[in-house]
Design brief:
alpha+beta; 35% helix; 142 residues
Length: 142
C-alpha cells in the first residue's frame, strides 16, 4: 500500500507568521515614545529645555556652551551637581551639569526636571555674577 506523497510546490511560500503563530515581532516601543529614549538622552532633553527657557530671557547665553557629563572628574568632599567655567581666550564659557549625581538625588522625572533647572540657573547666575532669583524669578518656587 503505497500512499502517494503530494509534490512539493516549486517555490516556498512567504512566511506570514513565526513558527509559534503569534505574528511577526516588531520593536518594543515606537521611536516617538519616551520609553525608547535612553536615560542620558532624556536627561540631555531636560537640560536643553532649561537652557531654552533661560535663553529667551538672557540672549547672551547663546554664546555659552552647555555640556552634560556623567560624573565630576575630581574627588571632593561633596559631589557637585554642576560647574561653570569662565571663557578663556580659545574656548567659550561652559556650564557643566553632572547627570549621575542629579539622578541619584531625584526619584522621578518631575523632580529631576526641577533639580536640573535649579542647577542650570545657579550655574548661569555664577557665570553672570548675579543672584539666581534675578536670572529666573521662579527659582526656588517650583
Amino acid at each position: 500500500m503505497d500512499s502517494p506523497v503530494p509534490p512539493r510546490p516549486p517555490e516556498p511560500r512567504p512566511r506570514r507568521r513565526d513558527r509559534h503563530g503569534r505574528g511577526m515581532r516588531g520593536p518594543v516601543a515606537p521611536p516617538q515614545v519616551p520609553l525608547s529614549a535612553s536615560r542620558a538622552e532624556s536627561f540631555n532633553d531636560l537640560v536643553q529645555d532649561s537652557v531654552d527657557r533661560l535663553e529667551r530671557r538672557w540672549p547672551q547665553l547663546a554664546e555659552v556652551e552647555f555640556l552634560v557629563m556623567d560624573v565630576p572628574g575630581t574627588q571632593e568632599e561633596s559631589v557637585p551637581l554642576g560647574r561653570s567655567l569662565a571663557a578663556g581666550k580659545d574656548s567659550p564659557a561652559r556650564i557643566l551639569v553632572y547627570r549621575r549625581p542629579v539622578e541619584i538625588r531625584t526619584k522621578n522625572r518631575d523632580e529631576r526636571a526641577m533639580l536640573v533647572h535649579e542647577v542650570v540657573v545657579e550655574q548661569v547666575a555664577e557665570l553672570l555674577g548675579l543672584a539666581p532669583e534675578s536670572v529666573d524669578p521662579r527659582y526656588g518656587q517650583e
